[in-house]
């Protein structure tokens, strides 16, 4: 079955992964900082990785994107504090936001992602 708007398959799926490991032992995160959404007194440090979909999703819509941490290289003398999520999602891509806070110290990381879209009018 295809979408009447764009003549594509009703459900579209794209997926991928990335790994980044710093082989010289220097902290690669964070590159930016901002207050935590739930706890404004806690500063988050984060890295944004741009991801472009292999094929844009149809009709200028926004797919649902899920991100999962696949691996993380952390300073063993610090707390393991990390999460990853999709931000700035469009029909052509998104950013993976990899976050640490407080005394978390990241040297490398990896994540998996999947994006799906089903037109509501199909």
Automatic annotation (TrEMBL):
SUPFAM superfamilies: Agglutinin HPA-like. One of its GO terms (molecular function) is carbohydrate binding. Residues 50-116 form the H-type lectin domain. One of its GO terms (biological process) is cell adhesion. InterPro entries: H-type_lectin_dom_sf (IPR037221), H-type_lectin_domain (IPR019019). This is H-type lectin domain-containing protein.
């Amino acid at each position: 079955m295809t979408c009447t708007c764009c003549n594509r398959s009703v459900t579209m799926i794209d997926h991928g992964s990335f790994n980044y490991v710093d082989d010289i032992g220097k902290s690669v995160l964070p590159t930016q900082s901002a207050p935590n959404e739930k706890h404004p007194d806690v500063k988050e440090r984060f890295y944004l990785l741009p991801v472009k979909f292999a094929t844009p999703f149809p009709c200028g819509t926004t797919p649902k994107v899920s991100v999962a941490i696949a691996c993380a290289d952390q300073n063993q003398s610090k707390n393991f504090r990390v999460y990853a999520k999709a931000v700035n999602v469009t029909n052509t891509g998104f950013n993976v936001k990899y976050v640490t806070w407080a005394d978390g110290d990241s040297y490398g990381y990896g994540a998996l992602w999947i994006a799906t879209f089903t037109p509501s009018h199909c």
